[in-house]
Design brief:
heterodimer, A: alpha+beta, 2 domains, 4 helices, B: Four Helix Bundle (Hemerythrin (Met), subunit A), four-stranded antiparallel beta sheet, 22 helices
């Protein structure tokens, strides 16, 4: 093979692999992206049952109910609207009533959000970034979440 | 006083960096050896002052000087000495100090040990190194001063983030930074070569040890971080495709590609232009990683605190260095001479294949990590690109790489014999096929693909062994002769085999855990038992245990086999830190061979029941053991005399110099 043909083989192979990679990425983007929504977003965007989303907001104070077999129910609020969340499992260390939470899952037919993951990732103010942004947008942001997190919260562990 | 000394030393270091960044370049332009020779002593002096500043900060931490704001915010006098020391880099300001310290350390090492380098190349490379140092020192001094004082010194500090109070903090960040920052050397050499407009095979020989060293540290640093997350976060995950993890994986992928393309450049003088580009990209990705983690665009435990000025400053550094380097590359790279020819099927071809897939895999990680940020900036939509994306892109791109890996070392330079290589790999393929058949026969209801995953891992490992067997002619010549051949093999050949073997080991661990790992979540009362895999745990009760700056609520569990044999106890705990009013989960681990039982505790209920998560992680330790083997491979390769000595010697001379190794 001449130098030119060898280079063509090389460049052609490279482009083929790159095209394959791009195809893989586009395909994956279609199936595996999860949008973040506040309870208000869920209502406004008419998100139907079965669509996988991340639901974020505050755990409504007094809404946490623990059942058998580590089943829990609580409500997520952004100050304007609430959505009931059902989850089975061990809640993360930083889960508190009145604090921010992000749950991943989908709405079931009856309007209850069936969560399979409750995210524990918070910064030092106990507030996931997405939740803070959503609260600021809905006008229900308060500046004292960090102090409130430090206080024992009533109704925990019932 | 100590803090002010540190602050002043950092300013002096900045001054020295500015001199080191300009004078040698001027000297290189005007061919003035006196100006060029400033570079090396300036680099050593700059390191000395940075070390002084870093040491001053460390003293402030160890002596718990809470009049220093940074110490007050991140330390506590009740913490053990190890954590008082490691909390130096357990915060934004301190970790940037560590970054600059390691950067200056590398500069000083090049200045001291790069005695065989051409004068001009060394001067230019050290100057580029100084630009990076100056940029980050300026960043610390203007936006992240760790030496700021408080007027009224408090009595007690606010404690280090509890998640970071772990021996992992002593190793993970320094190793990771040694890797990240280590790629600055190849970057500086690449820029120096472009400035000079001249590059040859020797360039690759000078740069390769630095790349190798950085790659080794990064490998161990990533593996260490993965193990830390595994035992600290309480749910047994070892890799989350979290943007912060991706930030360290991208330079690793690019660095691995660089390591391989530099081999081609060194041996055959080919792929020069590409190697320069990948050297620039590897460090650019390190910078992007630093930006992602340090600017606070991602909120996670790594971001510590958020301040938009810092983000903009790092973004400016990023744009200046990456943009500048790529512009210089576009301008100067066409001047570089083309290298040797090779057929598509050859060792060079195999290494090009490696580079192609590694960079594409790296691009997939890059897109998946940055797309959510870009989308949020453009449309305001918040999305998560999670594991499904990476599994669907990174996986298929890595698969051909793993399949091809055993072939590469068996192909000849210039023109290879694919059929011959395949014949020599028949033994490896046979072992893999037996493993697949055995897994199918043994497994009950695991995923169908899992045995093939095991087979691939075995193929990769066996391929590495075949490579060594072929080189030593073992089983074909008498054992003594084969052993002599083994001793005479270049250490880099052993290094390759070890590193490739390590990849197979890690893959085996990942496949096993993913396919056959099991978990149970249960709420236990005193005396209750829970079964998982072949194990039975009994809950024996809760008790309190005080620690230096925390208290533990410990659950005690007795572990037996299902047939009743006693294996021991596990004591997971919930750890409460009064200073920050935070709690962490301390999982208990029980090792069984290379597998682990993993137990973590939930919040106990008032009636005495405790929620627990119990996992059985088969062969999980192989994941990190593989990384250790890769590190060992790198170390073997690094000890190859070809890299230590200036130029390769003829085989004969080598034999007389090195009779028995």
């Amino acid at each position: 093979m001449t130098r030119k043909r060898r280079r063509l083989v090389l460049i052609g192979g490279g482009l083929a692999v790159l095209a394959g990679a791009v195809a893989l990425m586009l395909n994956a983007f279609r199936d595996s992206i999860v949008f973040f929504n506040s309870p208000t977003d869920v209502a406004e965007r008419h998100i139907g049952p079965g669509t996988r989303i991340r639901l974020g907001g505050l755990v409504k104070s007094g809404s946490l109910v623990r059942g058998d077999d580590l089943k829990v129910r609580f409500e997520v609020t952004d100050g304007s609207r609430e959505i009931a969340v059902a989850y089975q499992g061990v809640l993360p260390d930083l889960f508190r009533e009145g604090q921010g939470v992000v749950a991943e899952g989908a709405l079931d037919g009856s309007g209850v959000f069936d969560a399979d993951t409750i995210l524990a990732k918070h910064d030092e103010t106990y507030m996931p970034k997405e939740v803070a942004d959503a609260l600021k947008k809905s006008g229900h942001w308060q500046d004292d979440y960090a102090q409130r997190a430090a206080m024992p919260v009533g109704g925990r562990g019932q | 006083m100590i803090a002010e000394l540190g602050h002043y030393a950092l300013m002096l270091a900045l001054g020295l960096a500015l001199i080191q960044g300009t004078m040698p370049i001027v000297g290189g332009r005007t061919d003035d050896p006196a100006l060029m020779s400033i570079a090396a002593p300036a680099a050593v002096a700059q390191f000395a002052f940075v070390a002084l500043a870093f040491g001053a900060l460390a003293i402030c931490y160890v002596t718990s000087d809470f009049s220093v704001l940074n110490v007050y915010e991140n330390s506590n006098s009740a913490m053990p000495l190890l954590y008082r020391l490691t909390s130096v880099w357990g915060n934004h300001e301190g970790s940037m100090m560590l970054w600059v310290f390691i950067l200056a350390l590398f500069g000083a090492l090049v200045a001291t040990f790069g005695t065989n380098l051409p004068v001009k190349l060394k001067a230019n490379a050290l100057a580029v190194q100084a630009w990076i140092a100056a940029a980050f020192q300026l960043f610390i001094l203007t936006t992240s001063n760790p030496f700021a004082r408080i007027a009224d010194a408090p009595f007690e500090g606010r404690d280090l983030n509890p998640v970071l109070q772990d021996p992992g903090l002593a190793f993970h960040p320094p190793l990771l930074y040694l890797g990240y920052v280590g790629f600055s050397i190849s970057f500086s050499f690449a820029i120096a070569a472009l400035l000079e407009g001249r590059i040859d095979a020797a360039w690759a020989r000078w740069v390769r040890p630095w790349v190798l060293g950085a790659w080794m540290c990064l490998t161990l640093g990533i593996a260490g971080g993965s193990y830390w997350a595994y035992y600290e976060l309480g749910w047994g995950g070892y890799w989350f495709w979290d943007p912060v993890e991706n930030a360290s994986l991208m330079p690793w992928l690019a660095g691995t590609a660089l390591l391989h393309s530099a081999v081609v450049m060194e041996k055959r003088g080919a792929l020069k232009v590409w190697t320069i580009l990948i050297a620039i990209l590897a460090f650019s990705l390190s910078l992007i990683g630093t930006f992602l983690v340090r600017s606070g665009v991602l909120t996670s435990v790594h971001a510590f605190a958020t301040d938009p000025r810092r983000g903009i400053f790092i973004l400016a550094i990023l744009v200046a260095f990456i943009g500048g380097a790529l512009a210089l590359y576009a301008w100067r790279a066409p001047l570089l001479k083309q290298g040797g020819l090779f057929a598509p099927i050859s060792r060079e071809g195999a290494l090009v294949f490696n580079n192609l897939f590694l960079t594409c895999a790296c691009a997939a990680v890059f897109v998946g990590t940055l797309y959510p940020l870009a989308l949020e900036a453009l449309t305001g939509d918040k999305i998560t690109v999670g594991p499904p994306f990476f599994n669907a892109t990174f996986g298929p791109l890595f698969l051909p790489l793993l399949l091809a890996m055993p072939f590469g070392p068996l192909l000849g330079w210039k023109r290879g014999d694919l059929l011959g290589a395949a014949q020599r790999l028949l033994a490896a393929a046979f072992v893999a096929a037996v493993a697949i058949a055995a897994e199918f026969a043994l497994q009950h209801g695991g995923p169908v693909l899992a045995p093939f995953g095991v087979g691939l891992a075995i193929f990769v490992m066996a391929g590495a062994i075949v490579d060594i067997a072929e080189r030593t002619l073992i089983l074909r010549v008498p054992l003594g002769a084969a052993l002599r051949r083994a001793a005479g093999l270049p250490r880099s050949a052993w290094g390759t085999a070890f590193a490739h073997f390590g990849i197979g080991v890690t893959l085996l661990g990942i496949v096993s855990v993913t396919a056959w790992g099991s978990e149970r979540i249960a709420a236990l009362k005193l005396g209750d038992t829970v079964d998982l895999a072949h194990y039975r745990l009994t809950f024996d009760g809760l008790f309190n245990r005080p620690g230096p700056n925390y208290r533990d609520l410990v659950g005690r569990f007795t572990v037996r086999r299902t047939n009743g044999d006693l294996l021991g106890t596990m004591e997971p705990s919930r750890r409460t830190f009064p200073a920050r009013k935070m709690a962490t989960t301390e999982a208990a681990l029980m090792r069984r061979g290379v597998s682990q039982l993993y137990l973590s505790l939930g919040d106990p209920k008032p009636d005495g029941t405790v929620p627990v998560r119990l996992y059985f992680k088969p062969q999980v330790l192989l994941i990190w053991l593989g990384a250790v083997i890769m590190f060992a491979g790198g170390a073997l390769s690094l000890s190859d005399r070809r890299l230590r000595v200036g130029a390769p010697r003829p085989a004969k001379a080598q034999a007389t110099l090195q009779p028995a190794v």
